[in-house]
Amino acid sequence: MPQYRRIAVSTNGDVSVVSFNDKKILDEASIQELGAELFGIVEQQQSKSVLLNFANVEFLSSAALGKLITLDRKVKASQGRLKMCNIRPEIFEVFQITKLNKVFDIRKDEAEAIKAFS
User: Fold this and answer.
1) Residue 2 within any structural domain of the chain
2) CATH number of the domain residue 97 falls in
3) Of 6, 25, 85, 95, which has the highest C-beta tally within 10 A?
4) Where is 38: in which H helix or E strand?
5) What pTM was estimated for this model as a whole?
């Protein structure tokens, strides 16, 4: 398993569970690094089932949303599935405003999201 600075990756069955190390995902350099690490999970490790757990995340910039959209495309291109969970209400509101809640499969918590992969 590679070492990451912005994320922590564990596995639950065949699902790669990604937790974010940063509470605030704001500045461009962090977002670029985060994107590279997330894309690596799909490209290098060939993970087909990816769950993003937002439990630690308090703030997410719109540039970070762009990375999530690109990640979703990469996962789908490799015939994989991407799900998200534990998104705070104030962040979920941004997903609703941008209609991304219709694009992403967002679940209440990790247990529910893991079940949804089967």
Assistant:
1) no
2) 3.30.750.24
3) 25
4) helix 28-43
5) 0.95
